[in-house]
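The data are quoted verbatim here:
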Amino acid sequence: MAVTFRATVDVRLDDVDVNGPIRGPALLAYADHARWACLRAAGLSPSDLRTRRIGPVNLETTVSFRRELLPGERVEITCEFEYGPGRTSRVHQELRTPDGTLIAEVSGVSGLLDPDRRRLLENPADHWRALAPNPKPLGL
């Protein structure tokens, strides 16, 4: 059974475009915020990763918009990770209002970068298990 991590964000006025609904880049920032919150819940910080010479990288992101999100609304962002063999993993995210209305879906392909060699590491799940004091939020 997959573990789903959840983070909540309040929509700010500067997150909307001239027509009123949320800007695409703001929605992507919410998804990114939730993934970093998930890493924090797993016991990791950006400085921990820099010290260990490892860094998560986004290789592909797909967004499907379903409904407008307006200033003052609250949105819950989920993170559900999928690992397989190789150098990449997937993350599936949903953004929903408190009543459960689906705002958007974000799907991504990511990897873990060795910044010295400039190469993706094999088997990201193995690295997350070894690095994270609490790997459960990462689905491990």
